[in-house]
Amino acid sequence: MNIHFIQHEIFEAPGAYLNWAKERNYQISFSKVYENEPLPDSADLIDLLIVMGGPQSPNTTLEECPHFNAAAEINLIQKCISAGKAVVGVCLGSQLIGEALGAKVNQSPEKEIGVFPITLTKLGTEDEKINHFGTYLNVGHWHNDMPGLTPESKVLAFSEGCPVQIVSYSNVVYGFQCHMELSTEVVSLLIESEDDLASASKKHKFVQSPETILAYDYSEMNAKLFEFLDKLTAAYKAQ
């Protein structure tokens, strides 16, 4: 398996996604666009494309963020989907998948930063790749927006603050608004990138304090993510 990551910022690290790929001894490549690394020209050498999060929006222009080319990333996602490759988007990445399929990004009803439970929908409990999550699962969040939905997409999970947390766009294309890749190390980077998280935690219902977020044990959500990724790659190989 050839796993290619698009990483938008140093603090939006792939965390458990990268750990999973390393543990499985898969081939790993990166487009660290914050270091101006190029995107692949084609999908030929990619089996699984993982598009990470970032403070940007699919609507962010090159003038606003010179290292983030939304149109180019959307084009690569479209190439991967057309070629039958597996694609996983995280936060911004999930919104870019929606855009690639013609579904515009939406603003989430609530800002969510921290660890809060998601609930699987009926479709989620029927989805063999994520039903091991259980009805409820505590996962990481760090967002204001949420991915758009196509007529064919299925919402598999939601949270109290956001109605679209996990989306199946096809058998091998999934969007995660939530961050199941978080670890204490990744969270530390994210906290450093925030202007005043302590103050925000007092203003927003679904924003936790830095101390609360750092104290959480992320091992269960990481293990659930590993199992999802194993099931996804098995489905990809079975095509």
Structure description:
There is one protein chain. The chain is an alpha/beta fold and 239 residues long. It has one domain (2-237): Class I glutamine amidotransferase (GATase) domain (Rossmann fold, 3-Layer(aba) Sandwich), CATH 3.40.50.880. Helix content is 32%, strand content 26%. It has eight helices and nine strands. Strands 2-1-3-4-9-8-7-5-6 form a nine-stranded mixed sheet, with helices on both faces. Helix 2 crosses helix 3. The protein is globular.
SSE topology sketch:
Blueprint: E1 2-7, H1 16-23, E2 27-32, E3 48-51, H2 70-82, E4 86-90, H3 92-100, E5 106-120, H4 122-126, E6 136-146, E7 154-159, E8 166-170, E9 173-176, H5 184-193, H6 197-203, H7 210-215, H8 219-237
Parallel strand pairs: 1-2, 1-3, 3-4, 4-9
Antiparallel strand pairs: 5-6, 5-7, 7-8, 8-9
Helix pairs in contact: 2-3
Overall spatial form? globular
Radius of gyration: 16 Å
Q: From the coordinates shown, what is the CATH architecture?
A: 3-Layer(aba) Sandwich
At the first level of CATH, the class is Alpha Beta
Mean pLDDT: 97
Widest sheet: strand ordering: 2-1-3-4-9-8-7-5-6
> Strand count, sense and closure of the main sheet?
9 strands, mixed
Beta-strand residue percentage: 25-35%
Terminal Cα separation, in Å?
A: 14 Å
Number of domains: 1
Helix segment tally: 8
Number of E-state strands = 9
